Amino acid sequence: MKIPTGRRWRPLFLVIALSTITACASDSGCNGCSSGQPIPGGFPQAHRFDNAGQIRLTSSGVTYLEQNLEKLMLSFLPSGLTFTIPPSGCSSTTKVCCGSNPCTASIDITKVDITPKSGARLNLKLDAKVTTNKLYFAYDLPWPLGWLNCDAQYDTTAKSPSTAGLSADIDLVIDANNHNKLKIERKTMTITNFDCGDIDISGGFDCTIASWLCGLFKSKLLDGVQGPMEQAIDDLIKTLPTGIEARYDLAALLAAFDPSASGLLDYFVWGGGYAQTENGGVSAGAMGGFRAAEHNPCVPNCEVAGASCTPPPKAAITRSNIFRDNTRPDGKSFHVGIGVHRQTLDQAAYALYSSGALCLDVSSNLSTQLNSGLFSLLVPSLNVLTGGEQVPVLLAVRPQKPPTVTLGDGTWHTDKDGNPVIDEPLIKVAAKDFKADVYALIEQRWVRLFTVKGNLYVPALVYANGQGNLQVMLGDLSKALSNVSIANSELLAEDPAKLAKLFPTVLNVAAGMFSTSFDPIALPDFAGIKLGLDTGSITSVDNKDVLAVFANLELTQSTSASGDLIPGARDSQRVDARAHVVKLEVPPTAAFAVTHPDFSPDRSPAVLLELDAVVPPSLTPIGRRGIEWSVRVDGGFWRPWTKAKRMLLRDPLFWIQGEHQVEIQARLAGQHRTTDLSPAQLKITIDTVEPKLRLIRNAEGLRAEVKDLVTPSGELALRWIVDGRRVEGKLVDGVATLQVPADAKVRVEVEDKAGNIAQTTETRVADIQLPSTEEAGGCAVARSDAPTSSTSAYLLLLGLALLSWRRRRDS
């Protein structure tokens, strides 16, 4: 049996996909995002909608820009605020700056004032000290006077006021001729307090009396100063993300866990619809639209007659008052607010569904640990089908209806064991009529082991990890399925009700593997500014209809002049995380099976950690606020910060027998810029299964064949006990041999790295039977027509399938 060619879906992917699309939908982009390709004919107007999102720059955000505008502008002036005034008229009768020495001007900004005006206008006013070196000037006077050669030097401090004023209006324009898209325009800059009294003219008696030359010098100076300043402001405006529309190939996003996945998504996210100044800040709308470039047949089409599913509605969305004010719901101020309406998320989810991007086959492409070794512990009868071999397992999930998205408060707490527990998810993804098939690769054919059906619910938390990134944490998936039923499980001996108990564990493990394929989502930075988030920055508002992100503006390290992380701390002075294992709690092998009476999907193996940190001396004065830690397993999602010094760490990935890596970060509580960038690392080994040992006799002596689920064969320790005397054995590719007399008594034991020991009973060599030529596997020479163990297993599968088919036909 082969799996159908259409790729399968995993709703867990939706949480990441929605977050990634949101982070990437800007001109500036974000790490790991493709800029996409143009949409032929543009994004359809009929599928666009207003108020998909809202953007707010508060009064405190305006103040922050006032305080840091000079630093931002410096990043767009190659030589800083000192620049060259270019020569002009060098072949004419009026020569300016045509001498051998370049003319330069320097600007020292002393004050910045950004004032919101009525409508959608910001007035930018700079007070600056302006100085120049001596500007060479030559003027060809009428005959017979000849050339007048003078030097002019400008200095605003020569006369009160000591500064010049530079003023420009910045307009946020809703372009009615371009489908109400937002564009940002700079109006003409004006310069005030640029007086002749600030110009010193020298070069001889004729120059000192030539006050009529002031106007000419002034005009040239104005051009020399105004041009670079206008260019710097224009360059700053160009970096502001106003929107994007593109066709995005999702294959790159999905390749980490399904290289064969595909899907083309057209998306439109653009500022527009409205823009206005209010309450000392600026508010603007965002238009949106998401559409599959073409419907993928791997999912039912919801837009044909008689369809069993329906697209999400597109009702009119009203503006949220939260994004017209200057404080977030908890009363704290913020600089920038971003709101995304729930309907926008539903539309994005539907587009992902229809494009086929959510049709995935999740196998060893995601993790080599996704094999029958895991499942054979949970489902012991699988060993019969695989002949005891480890074979790849594939989780194929297919949607029958589009997922829907609802929002919550996004709250969590730390339990008594130090683990984060979601109280109310931020994002809740629901998928009705969920179906998933689990396959095993037997005899080079994908054989279905069982099908699970039910309604899927995936809770997720999105939070700031303190390093400028968004991090996703999935909630407990042990109760993710309701109305569960199992079908097509005839090949397994376990009761279907027991298998239904298994799938939440499989889902949890797959989700843990899935998380290792995604790095935290980097928030875009622009113009030397990035968004800073804290614990309460991400939530939902307006009766949980709007996903809200409240951020503060921060200068990037390259923009900040001092480079200080917090007062008294530099980049090299970060908290150093430390940790050690107190104990490991692993149930016996039998408790891993779904048939065991104590089996519980949410009671995985656990490790008790003792957490510590070293604080640099320069941070000690502010270190009294305490230390907090964040932990992740096998490169997955970082967990929210906790102050618990002891953590009983549970993770679904610990159901997988093998070696796991636990990483620990530390920081001063609430001070994200002190975060340890080199996490402490611990190796955790989960291994309860003893090696498999087979002892046979052939013409060459004794042969021990050994394999282990976790420890490589080269690291297993094998010992021969011959007549009570111990002889160390050497394993080569899992095989060890020994020549001993036929009357000797022999026992073999093999030990893995976890200390699990397998051994044979003491037996006289002559009594160890030679392998039958009919025996499956081993080293015996079998008849050419004799089935191997895996072939026998496949014939067993075929017979069971035929029997099952006959029973269904008879019934």
Question: How would you sum up this structure, described in words?
Answer:
This protein is of the alpha+beta class and 811 residues long. It folds into four domains: 413 residues, no CATH class; 169 residues; 79 residues, Immunoglobulin-like, CATH 2.60.40; 30 residues. Helices cover 16% and strands 37% of the residues. The chain is built from ten helices and 42 strands. Strands 1, 12, 13, 14, 15, 26, 27 and 28 form an eight-stranded antiparallel β-sheet that branches. Strands 16, 17, 18, 21, 22, 23, 24 and 25 form an eight-stranded antiparallel β-sheet that branches. The longest helix is centred in the first third of the chain and has 25 residues.
Produce the secondary structure layout.
Blueprint: H1 12-24, E1 49-57, H2 59-74, E2 82-85, E3 94-96, E4 103-117, E5 121-132, E6 135-140, E7 147-154, E8 164-175, E9 181-186, E10 190-192, E11 199-202, H3 205-208, H4 214-238, E12 243-249, H5 251-254, E13 264-278, E14 281-292, E15 336-341, H6 342-355, E16 361-362, H7 372-378, H8 382-386, E17 393-398, E18 404-407, E19 411-414, E20 420-424, E21 427-442, E22 445-464, E23 469-474, E24 481-487, H9 496-515, E25 521-522, E26 529-532, E27 538-541, E28 546-555, E29 576-585, E30 606-614, E31 627-633, E32 646-650, E33 658-668, E34 680-686, E35 692-698, E36 701-707, E37 717-722, E38 725-728, E39 735-738, E40 745-751, E41 757-759, E42 763-764, H10 789-810
Antiparallel strand pairs: 1-14, 1-15, 2-4, 3-6, 4-5, 5-8, 6-7, 7-11, 8-9, 8-10, 12-13, 13-14, 15-28, 16-17, 17-21, 18-21, 19-20, 21-22, 22-23, 22-24, 23-25, 26-28, 27-28, 29-30, 30-32, 31-33, 33-34, 35-36, 36-39, 37-38, 37-40, 40-41, 40-42
